[in-house]
């Protein structure tokens, strides 16, 4: 019994000692941690004191999504955004596509969004296109991927593409315009720009399996574009579910092209300079990253240039003075060429007024009406807190239609862009801005100018009976009846 009591007393002493040690350790931890915790709580209080932007989230989940989509379909989205900004200011909150968002307007807002590295694509876009695109990677990785892509899109590369673009435009006009009395411009231009991209950037042929890949990719990318402005509900029978299915098919097709290019490289039949896919393979980019960037390039280079060409044709039809100047410029170049001779890079440099007309078209009808990005960390802008996870939405026309920047903003006036340096920074953002400026703007310029040269020197046109030139902005600008025009060949 005595031994038991002695053991019990020893255990008690041991427990007391352990408890004392634990209390001492806890005291040290608290003493060390308290200043840090105090700073953290103070920082949290500071965060809470910064107000969220004024505005309204509307109904749960739905928010303002249905109202905004209706405005896009009716081509009243610019008025919708101006009313919202007039009510709540240049930084406001709302709810779009199932999540909180900050609408930011003005040139400073454009700079904030395009120069900001703490942003990424919305989850719905990442699921459709990929997560490792030039649009989303940051820092050293962004510089590496951008350098890889830009080598196929910089001016010295685009110079080599002009002859290929020339051949594609002639082939298309011979097949789709010659001998016809009318043409739906938008479908025609979408087909043309897709073929130019497949031939020039990806070196896809027109025979056998390559023809099948072209046809399948075209159908899949048309479906993908429809997902740009849909509610991202991955449920049976929804538009978003169909977009995801199209994305999977497109990725499989691009993966097949990668395997062909890899085999060609191994056999010494292909060079890294041949096309974008082979170049990326030679640089050691993983297949998933190549697929992501090919998907992004195909969407970025396809519908945007098609929309530019379509609305340039529309505006020239209704602006005689501008049309006459474009025709005069293009006919002068045509007279300097031998029969059948392709256009050159130097010829494109002489098309200054035509490109000014194209820039004015981009100002009036930007192919991408608004840019949506997601914050990857809390950010302050305009005195308001934009929390991590919120979308930030910028509307291109809020500056491009601002009468303080572009007087009489609804008037088509290519003279605004005859001296591009006169346009204030971040007020014209059809090609983005800052580090995120579109790497393909030289490619788009060349493609547009080559196409317009042959259209205006081979055809006259006017809107067909019953075609009023109206258009929707959902999901991208698309004219009623595809912009149906009556055409007459110039002999």
Automatic annotation (TrEMBL):
InterPro entries: Cyt_P450, Cyt_P450_B, Cyt_P450_CS, Cyt_P450_sf. One of its GO terms (biological process) is sterol metabolic process. It comes from the Eukaryota. The keyword Heme applies. It holds the Pfam family p450. Keywords: Heme, Iron, Metal-binding, Monooxygenase, Oxidoreductase. This is Cytochrome P450. It comes from Paspalum notatum var. saurae.
